[in-house]
Amino acid sequence: MFCPQCGQQQVTTVIRFCSRCGFPLDGVIQLLNSGGIIPVYRDSNEPVKISPRRKGVKQGGLLLLSGALIVPILAMFASFAHGSTFLEILAALAAIICFVGGPLRMLYAAVFEEGAPPRQIYGPPVQMHAQQHLAPHGQAPALPPPPARQHGSWRRPNTAELANPPSVTENTTRLLEKEDRTER
Questions:
Q1: pLDDT under 50: residue ranges of the chain
Q2: What is the pTM of this model?
Q3: Annotated domain spans of the chain
Q4: H/E element, 110
């Protein structure tokens, strides 16, 4: 991996800052790990909406657990009020509603109600030079724009080209000069 600021090659991808210029590389590492897709983060103050499915399962569970509290209390009142069929019917009705209705509500929510939308951790792919347009106003982009280089103008230098090789005629001329010196 290379630093996008200064071009320094980094020894490992675990490093958090560039060893030459100190540029923070956390965003670069996340960008490389996600295949060039910019992460989208949710605001921490934004409330998390509960899905209808989860809400229904919670309602069914609450109804089932409330039955464990309400039915014994109504049964105790019915046992103390001798001959009161109203409290006995009320306790039986509460048991049916809570112990049958609770699991049925959870089953209905799990099967028929809409679940939570899939989490979108990463946004759509964005070109690196377009990132400065996506940053909120007043906030600097995470990465600087790429340098304005023409792709065809720069090429990697060949180290053999640094010292020009002698021409064929130079070598022949030197040999002729040697012969002239030895004959004299």
A1: 122-135
A2: 0.42
A3: 52-112
A4: helix 85-112
**For residues 10 and 17, is the Cβ–Cβ distance under 8 A?**
no
**Residue 157: is it exposed, middle or buried by C-beta count within 10 angstroms (0-12/13-18/19+)?**
exposed
In which residue are the tokens 């630093």 written? 3
Model confidence over 75-116: pLDDT tens digits? Answer: 898 888 877 788 889 999 999 999 999 999 999 999 998 887
Residues ≥6 apart with Cβ < 8 Å to 85? none
Q: Kindly tell me the burial class for residue 91, based on how many C-beta atoms sit within 10 Å of its own C-beta (0-12, 13-18, 19 or more).
A: buried
Question: Which pair of tokens denotes residue 124?
Answer: 């759509």
- For residues 28 and 31, give the distance between their C-alpha atoms in angstroms, rounded to a whole number: 5
pLDDT computed for residue 98 by the predictor: 93
